[in-house]
Fold each of these.
Amino acid sequence: MLSNWLYIGIFMLVSFFLPAAAITIAGLLAPKKPNAIKNSTYECGMETVGKSWIQFKAQYYVFALVFLVFDVETVFLFPWAVAYNQMTLFGVLEAIVFILILLGGLIYAWRKGALEWH
Amino acid sequence: MTFWSDPDGFLSNWLIHLLAGIGIPAGIAQAIGYALGAAILATGALFFVLFLIWLERKLIGRVQDRLGPNRLGPWGIFQPVADMLKIFTKEYITPSGADRVPYNLAPILTVAAVLMVWAVIPLAITVYGVDLNVGLLYIIAVGSLGEMGILMAGWGSNNKYAMLGAFRAAAQLISYEVPMVLSLLIPVMLSGSLNMNRIVMNQDIWYVMVAPLAAFIFFLTSIAEVGRAPFDLTEAESELVAGFNTEYSGLKFGMFYVADFLHSFTISILVTVIFLGGWRGPGAESSPLLGFIYLTIKASLVNFIIIIERASLPRFRIDQMMDFTWKVLTPVMLILLVLTALLEKTLPLVGVPAWGRSAILFVLNIALLFATDSIVRAHLARRPRPDVRGKERPVARPENFFSQPGSGA
């Protein structure tokens, strides 16, 4: 069991190492002749106006919040789905009530206009 | 145990005995074996991308009535190799003012997020990286790391287009993750396990025959997760220059490219493993090689569909895309989940056999698919279409082309 996670850890290290190594090797092979024009920010070939790290729309947050609700929901639903075969009808009905409440939440967000992309 | 019945275990045993022969303890020998196995699997996956790039360029070329790459080697098969050698010698141009840490980490993280999925995929009955008991959860967790990579790329580039592209990509990816994860609940429910190999073993009837709608939604949302046509809004050239990877050059850009192609084959394999029976087929239980061949054939067919669909469908608009996931896929998936859970539990109580349950679920899925389709069509037909012809619009005439109002020019 523990060795499974050891393998996952090693695999993660390897999968970070391979692209990092490729990028480093290419950096050694490639020419390096930077200059101010070349390094300037490319914005359709035009001069950059102002800072790039600007304020952005709050709408992205709204989507992230709705996503968070459903992501936490699935965290609860996966253990239920694994135990589904050993479960009584009552357990299934309770989970269905849970899903229906979330469906209600989705409809609420929908009616409130949180799901409109402006 | 021979090589042909269990190549994975055979080779690792051989390696541990070999290392024990030169005085290395079994624990360290096993760790070395793991490292070698991981390196072989990950490197194999990365080099397989070269073939995938060639395949995709060739197929899209044929769809567009071109030849595609045809110069280097037979049928141009060495074209990606030449491209790779060339991109290795290209200069890295780092934009001034870039946030260096996320900028440089983003391509690595994007590739790593895709590669990590390969650790738990069962390639044949005994051939897998690791038989993790929460494999599917691990795939979901690791798969969403790619979104971090995209956000880091957009933020680090110090470019407004890249930033906008990254925000849009993040919004799209998290939105499509909701129906994707919900659709994965159904195979978990049917097999009663998160273990990938157990899910394959339990597919006496392929889950695509039990839950075709869940399979279809998983397929669609996976394509959106990769950011492929028709969901390739993250790199809509006409709107965002090139999206989050505008400022990348050389192999750092190449890494995003590699991650894209590898991800598209990874989702083909995932669709195969979860819904199309994975390595299962006649004789696959006794011969891992045969199972591996079955898996490759099925995954290639899925990948073929993805490529053809990329070549033939136009791009969605961003509001259409968000509507599609939140207002169509998510409610449908929730309803399907409720109905499947209810039917799978109540039908055995009234004495319906297993094949009968599968047939009923199949019919239910197809009915739900057509019901959704007709509701969406009816809604689209009722929606008023804005008439753009009648409106007054500024026209580029010679007299107002260069002049601004009030500038006196």
Amino acid sequence: MSLSTEPTSPQQHLRRAAQLGSMSSLAPPDRFLLGRHGERLHSRSSGASLDFLDYREYAPGDDPRAVDWGVYARSDRLAVRRFREEIRPRLDLFLDASASMAAPVPEKGLAALMLAVALSHAARNAGYADQLWQLDERPRQRLLDEYLSAAEPLGQLCAKGPTPLALRSLPKLPPGGVRMLISDLLWEEPPSATLAAMAGPGCPVVVLQVLCEEERLGPAPGTWLLEDAETGLLREYHADQDTRLAYQRRLRALQDVWAAETRRHGGVFLALEAEQVLESVFPRPLLATGLLLAAGVQP
Amino acid sequence: MSPSFLTPWAGLGAVLLPLLAVVYLLYRHPPLRKVSSLVLFPAEHWSTPRGMKPTRRRLPWVFWLELLLLACAVLAAMGPQLRLLLRPRQVAVVLDNSLSMRAGEPGSPRQAAEALLREWLGSQAAPESLVLAGSAPRVLPLEGGLTAALSGWSCWEPQADLPAAIALARELAGPTAQILVLTDHLPAEDALRTGVTWRALGRALPNTSITHASRAGRESGPDRLRLVIEHFGESAVTLPLTLRDELSGAVLHSQEVRVEPGKPLALTLAVPESAGLLRVALPEDALPADSTMLLPRQARREVSVGFRGLEREAAEALRRGLGSLAGVRLVESAPDLLFASGPMSEAALCRVELPERPPEPRISAGPFLVDSTHPLAADVSLQGTFWAISPEFTSSGIPIIQSELGVHLSWRLEEHRPVLRLNWLARGSTVQRSVAWPMLMQNLVDWCREYQPGPVRSVLTAGEELRVRVPAGVAEVTVREPGGGLVALPQAGSEVAYLTGQPGLLRVQADGRDLGEVAVNVVGGSEGDLRQAARGEQTSPPAASETVGVRDLGPTLLVLCLGLVLGHTWLLQSRFRQRWLRS
């Protein structure tokens, strides 16, 4: 599948992603996140919501309005009703903006941007408080409009620094909420370290890996002079059928490690094809995870 | 194969070829491909930072084709030549057939050479050819076996042209053949060619030779005998010279002669007119064959001359010219030499055709163009003479004398007999009153005499060819050799030939009737000088490898270049097609 068959510009792609995202809704975390043993996750804190949690003994200083007078009448005990904490879900979306996202083809970075835009809109629809982080040499908070109104949205993808390093310099984020990473995940640092840097207490992670076809299959047979998009390192590489298979095995192994580590952090790992994202914004594997309660139909 | 640089540019190209390959390799970058990361690429397929390649660099076919194409083009420009191996080495044997090989018998060089040859052939393959080195090289037929072939090795010839024989042997056996030369002297310094083994089997011996002998008859009085004797030794010798009648054995003359080394002794002896075949002899020495000679009586054969249809002035002039010659007889019928004018009906041995008187004769005062190499024009000088001719009388055959008016004398063969056309008119000519006239008549008679039946010459040197004019109607001509053998000569035309060998008296017969006797002598000369004879062996380096011929590889390489260009084009087109299909 060719990535450059769409006649539209990057801005048009991003507007289409925003439109589809606005018609979608990101599911609450407990709908798509599972605990270590597969159980649903709930907030364990009490709050001011309407959902009853339990009773506790009255303590001086408690709001008298919280005393359940019926219980006092029946048992002569002062009991205070507790309700579940009313949490507004938060989404911290980390977008890998390193130069590697524009290689080997810029459409890969465009697909990642589209995902970020669409998921941000879907999160807002679901009442999430979303925050988009662009991972350059250091994390930077960005507004969606900055991408949508940029003349060259892909020009944002030019960071030279390794993405895990940027993640390690994140400011202290509020606890709770979902932390989502959109990247190609092609770096040498182990996934556990990266996930540890972005995960927080009670913060499930969603990792979306976006790869183009050449990255999934490996380079075509022949001798190539490979240039690392971030470091500029040059390597002469001879590819044939055997090396292609070896490349694909290594990629599968990498993805397996990421999936296992993400699961260990109570999250979801998903590998997406950039071509499918360009075509439908929310590809079928993404929908299958239940990440979206309602997905807009592509116009 | 030794390449030679036909052009300096070819040499420069050969030097630059590896440089081109290096430049190609250095500047040949693989296509640049930007990737997001190198982590997934197996490290064992990377090049090292210093350029060392852990995996073998696979150059494209196009590179090898281009390299081969350049190499072929440069090689073709160098003009390479390939020496081709055709067959294993052959051996050819050159046998010295000169008289000196008989010196010192028994134990002569010839006998030693024959023994050596038989011994050598016992361990070697049969020779490719046997070549006799005489006055002219001759090949001995090997079909009848070696013994039969060697029977033709007579060693009676007055000289041995060894270089010509070696050249013939090499021509027969091939340029790589090894040539074995069996002779009695060593080769001249630096004269030994490649591929020749020279075996000298002679001995330095003193020898006395009769180097010249002739017998001249006179109209009256005794014959005159002229001898030249030479001694090839260190000191002078005194020897008895004997002159005998060969048939009766009677000694006609005897005297002591003293011969100094290096000083030929010339003798003139008078021989009785009645004496027949004479033998002049010196005592036998190292080379007995050149110490004796047979000298037959030089009987001049008579030539009969007749005239038919000639004008009176012409007949008179011819009669006057011929009348002064010896051995000429005017006859009325069946002449050997016939001068005739007008229609011809009578056959003769030689016929001279003259013109009839024309209405307007033309006269030439020269200059005359004379073919002085022709025996009819020998010693004929026409300077200052007038020669009248008939314009209507045409010539035929080979011109001998001509002027601006046309051909005056020409000749041709008609049924193996000579016919001359003499465009000469007595009236108006002064040539018949010049000294050229008797010379021309003498030449005519001598020439006619050669066409008379029988041996052309009565004395020959061994190795010379005996020519015999065959009379009309003869079925077989035979030669009885000195040893008694009778040889029938193959007859073709009016003349047969026989190669003389053993010295002695040859008797020629036609259908059993005697045609004449021929004395065959050996003449010492240089062959009688045995002081240079030696024993030894010299071997030159073998002929350049076992190859024959040289093949120019340039055209082959150019064809290969063309094929490579086509293959290169096809490969590029194929690659382009693949890219196009992929895109």
